[in-house]
Design goal:
There is one protein chain. Helix 4 crosses helix 8 and helix 9 packs across helix 10. This protein is elongated. The chain has a single domain, classed as MetI-like fold (Orthogonal Bundle), CATH 1.10.3720. 67% of the residues lie in helices and 0% in strands. The protein contains 12 helices and no strands.
């Protein structure tokens, strides 16, 4: 009798179904997925995020926290009542200032201007510094030399001094004039960080392959280099955001930043320091909120840095 030849059977649907989970498990995770997995296990991330969500919500919807007009002044309440912790979320919770205004209401409404300045300056310096750093790092040569020298010139001017000189030229200073003054002298660090990251990424094989396939400069910069070079910039921007908020408060304290009728923590600190001995809580309350906000942004930046840098894990 002729011998039967044994042939392997075709895999049935059962084997396909069983092999699918193994394939999914072996699929490598992206950098963003690894960073999010690291952030979820970081207590600093959740603490800082909780504080920031609270302050940002307070800045966006201050009427949820108080129904008192922060500009309403009643001289009969002149320094009336020290902080009263038993009246939670009431107008006299933190007492009154020299003009008889509720310190609690002004602290709640003061979050808006301070946080808007910090966020807008951070976005502006990230865009401006990121573009300068990308162009300098990618093109090199005389473009890099020119942009680097301009960056060095601006780097020689401290942020606070540059803000003082610039804002002194404005007779009426609003949130947007402060944003302009801080952006003008705050983009250089972002530019240097982005330049170094772009120089590293433009030598990668995927950039060479994209260039060989005929990709244009814009596509290479924004589709290939930028997503891989943005990590260090995000970390620096997040940490610097708290610094911009404190710089705005410093300028307002010196009388060069925001002015009435704008309400901000820096303005209240400046007004309260004149009567620090009689009513220290008028200064300590907005200063505490300011310090917590700056600390929260710094802690968030540290958590993001640890999550994006594999060497620190």
């Amino acid at each position: 009798m002729p011998e039967k030849t044994l042939t392997p059977e075709a895999p049935g649907p059962e084997s396909v179904v069983l092999a699918a989970p193994e394939t999914v498990q072996n699929k490598p995770r992206s950098l963003g997925q690894d960073a999010w997995r690291e952030l979820r296990s970081s207590p600093l991330f959740w603490i800082s995020s909780g504080l920031l969500v609270l302050f940002i919500f307070m800045a966006a919807f201050p009427s949820v926290f108080t129904d008192v007009d922060p500009r309403h002044a009643d001289l009969r309440n002149h320094f009336l009542g020290k902080p009263n912790w038993t009246h939670f979320f009431q107008e006299d919770w933190f007492g009154y200032n020299i003009q008889g205004q509720s310190v609690y209401a002004r602290t709640v409404y003061g979050a808006r201007a301070s946080i808007i300045v910090g966020i807008c300056v951070t976005l502006a310096v990230t865009i401006l510094g990121g573009l300068v750093g990308m162009l300098a790092g990618y093109f090199g040569g005389w473009v890099d030399a020119l942009l680097s020298r301009v960056t060095d010139i601006f780097f020689g001017i401290p942020l606070l001094l540059g803000g003082l000189v610039t804002l002194q030229a404005f007779t009426h200073r609003t949130v947007w004039t402060v944003v302009f003054g801080l952006t003008l002298f705050g983009w250089m660090q972002i530019a240097r960080v982005m330049r170094g990251a772009v120089i590293t990424q433009k030598q990668a094989d995927f950039v060479t392959a994209a260039r060989a396939l005929g990709a244009g400069t814009g596509r290479i910069l924004f589709r290939h280099i930028l997503p891989n070079a943005i990590g260090p910039v995000i970390v620096v921007s997040t940490i610097a955001l708290g610094g911009y908020i404190s710089t705005e408060a410093t300028l307002s304290y010196l009388g060069i930043g925001l002015q009435d009728p704008v309400i901000s923590w820096g303005v209240d600190i400046s007004d309260a320091q004149k009567n620090l001995r009689d009513a220290p809580h008028n200064l300590l309350v907005p200063a505490t909120f300011l310090s917590l906000t700056v600390l929260a942004f710094i802690l968030l930046g540290d958590a993001v840095r640890d999550a994006l840098d594999p060497k620190l894990r």
